[in-house]
Design brief:
By secondary structure, the chain is an alpha/beta fold. 27% of the residues lie in helices and 22% in strands. A seven-stranded mixed beta sheet has the order 5-4-1-6-8-7-9, with helices on both faces.
Length: 201
């Protein structure tokens, strides 16, 4: 693995958390982050995009940790077993993050670009920033202050499992995108994975 590039001085120093801990049910149980897309695993595309933004790149996964470790500074897994959902991965990542802001992205969105991520980072503050398409919030594309880990843990202990509901309760601010923005495509079915063109190559 190449040494990390220094983060841009024009942006707040952040950790990056890539979420790859799901069951992959729409992919027949396959580990989505390791599926091939344009000659590389999905996780490799996210790694290439986010590596220049941070010296603290974390991947949340619940299997194949050795393979994911090639694309991360640290690999974490859910504290609870049986794939309890993305909020569990977010909690695990925030618990080890080294910077005050944590950029959170799903592993199956390789069409993202630097401009959108820079817009998220430029909106950093004391409350979460979450992408929104029209009326539809995208909670797994967000920037989350690390100091909110205690609030996440408390909500989890009270039975909360919805990242969107929790982030909105914590005062999430919206970064609006077009409803048909191709950069936010989730390649979470075999058909979408096969059909999606590369926007960066």
């Amino acid at each position: 693995m190449q040494p990390p590039s220094p983060p841009s001085s024009a942006l707040p120093t952040c950790s990056v958390l890539l979420l790859a801990g799901g069951r992959g049910q729409r992919m027949g149980g396959q580990d989505k982050g390791l599926l091939d897309w344009h000659g590389q695993p999905l996780i490799a595309h996210l790694h290439a995009l986010t590596r220049p933004l941070s010296d603290d790149l974390i991947i949340s996964c619940n299997r194949n940790a050795e393979r994911y470790s090639a694309y991360a500074d640290r690999v974490v897994h859910d504290r609870e077993g049986d794939f309890p959902g993305p909020l569990a991965g977010i909690r695990a990542g925030l618990a080890v993050a080294r910077h005050p802001q944590v950029l959170i992205l799903p592993c199956d969105a390789p069409c993202l670009d630097s401009a959108l991520l820079h817009s998220l980072l430029s909106a950093a503050g004391d409350t979460p920033v979450m992408l929104r398409q029209g009326e539809h919030w995208q909670p797994l594309f967000c920037l989350l202050p690390r100091h909110l880990l205690g609030a996440l843990d408390a909500a989890w202990a009270n039975g909360e499992r919805s990242p969107q509901r929790l982030l909105r309760q914590l005062g999430a601010r919206a970064l609006d995108c077009a409803s048909d923005d191709p950069r936010l495509a989730n390649l979470n079915t075999p058909e979408l994975l096969q059909a999606a063109p590369s926007l960066n190559g």
